[in-house]
Write a structure and sequence with these properties.
The complex is a heterodimer of chains A (about 110) and B (about 110). Chain A is mainly beta. Chain A has strands spanning about 5, 10-15, 20-25, 30-40, 40-50, 55, 65, 75-80, 85-95, 105, 110-114. In chain A, strands 2, 4, 5, 6, 9, 10 and 11 form a seven-stranded mixed sheet that branches. In chain A, strands 1-3-8-7 form a four-stranded antiparallel sheet, with no helix packed on it. In chain A, strand 4 (about 30-40) and strand 5 form a beta hairpin. Chain B has about 110 residues and is mainly β. Chain B has strands at about 5, 10-15, 20, 25, 30-40, 45-50, 55-60, 65-70, 75-80, 85-95, 100-105, 105-110. The chains are: A mainly beta (about 110), B mainly beta (about 110).
Chain lengths: ~110, ~110
């Protein structure tokens, strides 16, 4: 019962490089989310996906690209990394849309952009 | 639009004393409210959630929260703190299409022995 996993757990990259963060869930949840966590801001939504091939922007989407070709995977790509994208990134999933549904979080990826 | 304000960025208590973490919210909808906990270098774990049923919600590890609509508050409490409760706590409101969550900035709870 793996649940939701993220890889890599830690990543160091340089400004201008492309980086892809992976997220995989084994529950077949419809909804998946990417957040970034920065001091003083809590978690902020980057992108979310309601189902395979359906994605939408969150609060802070600039500089990021997502795709969802399979229900269980939701990769996040930084096309040209910047120092301001140094952060901890969390992936989450939930079974159905709705005000009562719990989101389940992965362990996070710590990204440092030099 | 939804928003959440956690009134204290840091709270320090002694082991065995009560815990109070304060949260006020703003929502255009009838909100669902959550408390999540994050232990150091870990992901977030759901403590409890309010979904318009009972206003007093009981969660895991002895935590509970009371929804007060008149005060737009959803404070988290625990009668007796344990060392293992030291973590960061996030108050969260949910609403609108797509089940999007809006997080507060977090409260770091320190438990002294």
């Amino acid at each position: 019962d793996a649940g939701i996993t993220q890889s890599p757990r830690y990543k160091i990259t340089e400004t201008g490089r492309q980086v892809t963060l992976m997220c995989h869930q084994t529950w077949s949840h419809s909804y998946m989310f990417w957040y970034r966590q920065d001091l003083g801001h809590g978690l902020r939504l980057i992108y979310y996906s309601a189902a395979a091939d359906i994605t939408d922007k969150g609060e802070v989407p600039d500089g990021y690209v997502v795709s969802r070709s399979k229900t269980e995977n939701f990769p996040l790509t930084l096309e040209s990394a910047t120092r301001s994208q140094t952060s901890v990134y969390f992936c989450a999933s939930s079974e159905e849309p709705g005000l009562q549904e719990t989101q389940y979080f992965g362990p996070g990826t710590r990204l440092l952009v030099l | 639009a939804q928003s959440v304000t956690q009134l204290d960025s840091h709270v320090s208590v002694s082991e065995g004393t009560p815990v109070l973490l304060r949260c006020n919210y703003s929502s255009s909808y009838s909100p669902s409210l959550f408390w999540y906990v994050q232990h150091p270098n870990k992901g977030l774990q759901l403590l409890l959630k309010y979904t318009s049923a009972a206003t007093l919600v009981k969660g895991i590890n002895g935590f509970e929260a009371e929804f007060k609509k008149s005060e737009t508050s959803f404070h988290l409490t625990k009668p007796s703190a344990h060392m293992s409760d030291a973590a960061e706590y996030f108050c969260v409101v949910s609403g609108g299409y797509g089940n999007k969550l809006v997080f507060g900035a977090g409260t770091i709870l320190r438990v002294k022995s």
